[in-house]
Every structure is written in structure tokens, then in C-alpha cells.
Amino acid sequence: MRYMMLLRLDPAKAPVEGPSGELMEEMGKLLEEMTKAGVLLDTGGLRAVEPGAVVRQVKGKQTVLDGPFSEAKEVIGGYALVQAKSLEEATQWASRFLAVHGEEWEIEAEVRQVEEPE
Amino acid sequence: MTAAEEQGAGGPRDEQTRRARRAVEAVWRIESPRLVAGLVRLVHDIDLAEELAQDALVAALEQWPRDGVPRNPGAWLMTTAKRRGIDLIRRNEVFARKLRLLGHELEIAQGAAVFDEPAGTAGAEGGIEDDLLRLVFVACHPVLSREARLALTLRLLGGLTTDEIARAFLTAEPTVAQRIVRAKRTLAKEKVPFEVPRGAELAQRLASVLEVVYLIFNEGYSATAGEDWMRPGLCEDALRLARVLQGLLPAEPEVHGLAALLEVQASRAAARVGPDGGPVTLLEQDRRRWDLLLIHRGFAALARADAAARARGAAPGPYALQAAIAACHARAVRAEDTDWGRIAELYRALAAVAPSPVVELNRAVAVGMAEGPAAGLAVVDRVAASGALDGYHLLPSVRGDLLARLGRAAEARAEFARAAGLTRNGAERALLLRRLAEVAGAGGGGGGGAGG
């Protein structure tokens, strides 16, 4: 089964200097471990400071909003797509993902199963 | 979970306890292969190692729901298992005697030094990976029967319970348990060393390891018995094992070849099951349902296989060639875009390195598509004449397809009827009977009974 881990954080509460070298190294080690365990299918970080865009459709009418989105408090900072045996296993990997972040980070991971044919 | 626990369920506290329990079990699934591998290195016996690992799991089930999962659960489990080992040597004469028999006389005399490790050795990355690799080679050792190798590999390296393995193979739980007990006994009796083979032996033993993973995948991909066409859980277990092997043996071309083959085959999982649960042949599959992520992973693994082979000055091995064939199909956006000439060529190369009547049968399908049904039929008839595939349902199935395309309807129908009588899989039988019914006077399209 596949699970999508969506990592959410509030940029206002994140360390201004961004991820430390130590965090990047720990994260690298964890990602390598997850790859070698055959669990990690794909992962990536999303740029929070760069302007992005939102395409919205309401009653068939589309609007395109360009970033940055100051009104949005929480942003998705990254994702990881994993193959796991159960929601609990995926949650366990999510927990390890968060654990490499130090105490200065306020961060959460939402774990959702990917729809797949039976 | 037992029936009694189930009955007591209901309140929020019960729900919380069950959640905590499931969380511990999930950690266990992640950590148990490395834990058991490390313990086998220390005690030189799988049975004893599993016993200690189980004790550590029991301790975790007691403590973690109360205190939370420790920061480094793998290290916690290892420390707990070792402590339990030291305790057992002191208090349990039977355990100590077992260890003495395994050659730990001196260490026991020195006060339970079996479980002493210089700081750093156990935690070092290379250490754990070497332990895992040794366990892989022991679980897939040729002294064991094929069934025993599959069961032991899923149990020790896949972290599956005996019950899960039994369900995956539609076998009774006691049968699988027996199989594992006997396998462990055989390994002990034959004094199979806990080590990674070297030199010429490595190639031979690696072939056995790759075969085990391949067979696990195949059992999930085209179930040989029962009514379900696929058991995706087994495919995922095999894929995970193949990826673990890629990490452990990055210089081995065939390890990447196998991983590539399995990733690309798995990419078709959704498309090869019809709405009625029955099989859909490769050429009839809705290719939009192929999993692009797995296809790309397969291509990446195939590139690694090629690079590793080149680095060694070796030609592509059988798994890499099969992966290359699977990749040819994956590259064709529509079935009619398939480069059958290239596929026939790859089958010829495969037949040269790993000659087998099944490969020849697949080559017949490719030749039939590249050069026409008459050329394909000539290849099939040579295979049939050899008698090597008598009783194999895909031989009459492929022959039936080619005959139908040649407009020889009566002969084609007879072949499909024969194939339907030979398969043990219910869903596949239904497909073959449908083909039979479809063959009218005019030769129809279709083709490619093999593969998928």
C-alpha cells in the first residue's frame, strides 16, 4: 500500500536561517535508510519563500492567484511517498521524519493512503 | 488479536491500547530483520536469535505504550535483547548449554561475553548491513527446499508473521510453521556458516537469493492456485526485498536487473486485472492504468544494471534482459507501437544466456508479432515437439493465438480448450474459455498469451 506523507509547517514559526546543515545531514541519512529499506518511492521539499501560484475554480470560473500567499499560515513544506504494510508503519516513518527536526521546528506530517485498485 | 481482546474492545482506552500495540508492531516490522540479523551474528543460531528478539518485542509491548516509542527503537530493541541474553546465560542452564554447543564456551566462561560488543561496532552502518546480507544468504541457502527458502526469507527479512506467510501462500499456518522449524534445524545440522560467500560461490549463491525474491513476486503476480489472479501484498513484499538487495549489493548487475524487472512488471498490476477480477493480457491492457512511478523506477534500476555490468565488462544477465523486454513494452504508448523486432532480439539473447523452453515460447510470441503468425508458429512447434512443455497451459494458449491469426479456427479452439484444462488458476481458465468462444471462422486479432 502507498501512503503520502504531507509535511506541514508555519513559515512564520520556522527558523529564519532555514534548515541547518545538521538537519540536512540527518535527513539525508534517514532518506537513505528509507530507500534501502525499500520504503521510499519519492520525496521532495517545496519552496516556501518563492512565489508559487494557485489556480482556483468556483462554479466553473477560474482565477489564478500568484504567490506569495501571506494569508496562508500553514504551508506544505514537503512530501514523501512511501510503500508500507499498514497505516501504522507509514506513521512510524513519518514520526522518524519529524524526529530529525530539532526542537526549534514546529512541524506536522499528515499521512494519507493513496487510492489504489484492490 | 485474540477473540477475548476483541470482545473487550469498545472504550476509548481500549482503542488507545490497540493503537499503541499496532504502533509497536509496525516498529517491529521495520526493525526485526536488522535485529535478528545482529543477534544471529552474536549467537550463531537463528532460533536463539529469534527467541531473544521476541523477548525484546514483549518488553517493547509492555513499555512503549506507557513511555512512548524510544528515539532509536532499533538500538533499544538490540540492547534489550542482549540484556535478556546475558540474563538467560546466568539463570538458564539450558540456554547456556545451547550457547556452549554453538562454540561460545570461552565467552561464557568470561562472564557472558557473547553479548559484549566494542562500542560502535553494532551501531556502525556497515556492521548492520553486513549482518543483513549474511542473513539473506543463510535464509536462501541451497541446502533448504524452495518452499523453506521462501518462507524463511519472508519471515526473517520481510518481517512477516507465520500466519501472514500462510495466508499469502494459501497454506495452513502449522504447515508454514513446520517448514520454518525444519529449515532452521537443517541450517543448524548442516552447520551453514553465517557469512557472505566469496568468489565463484558468490555468483551461485546470489542466483539462489534472486530466485527466491523472483518466486515470491511471481506467486503474487500470477497466483498458481486459487481463484484470485493476483495477490498484490506478496508483490509488494518481493519489491521491497529487491530494493533492499540493491542497497546491500550495489555492484551486482543482476540485483538491479531483478529490481528493474519487478518494478516494471508491478507497474501493470492495476491494468492486468479486469473488472470481473480476471486477467487482462498485456496487449489488451489499458496502458493509461500503468503506474508511471514504478515504470520510471524500473528504468532507473535497469540503467544501474547496465552500468554495473559495464563496470565489470560483463554482458547483461537474464534478469536484466527480461527487464529490458518489460521496458520495451513499457515504452510503447499503444500496443501497436511495440518494438517486437527488438523484443524478439532480446529473447534470442536471453535464450543464449539462460536457455529454457519457456523463453523459447515467449520468443515465439515476439517472432509471431514481428514477422507474422506463421514464423511464430514454426518456433512454437519446435518447442512443442521437444515435449519439454507438455502440461504447461501457456503452450497451447500461445499456439491457439497463432493458429487463430492464421485463420485455422478449429485447431485454435482445440488448443484453447486444452490450455483451459491445464491451468490451475480459475481466473485464467475463464479467460482461455472466452478466447475459445471468440475464435470464429475468421482469424481474430489478440495474441500474446504469455507474459503480461
TrEMBL record, chain A:
Gene3D superfamilies noted in UniProt: Dimeric alpha+beta barrel
Organism superkingdom: Bacteria
SUPFAM superfamilies: Dimeric alpha+beta barrel (SSF54909)
Domain YCII-related: 1-96
PANTHER family: BLL0086 PROTEIN, BLL7171 PROTEIN-RELATED
Family classification: Belongs to the YciI family.
Protein name per its UniProtKB record: Transcriptional regulator
Originating species: Actinacidiphila epipremni
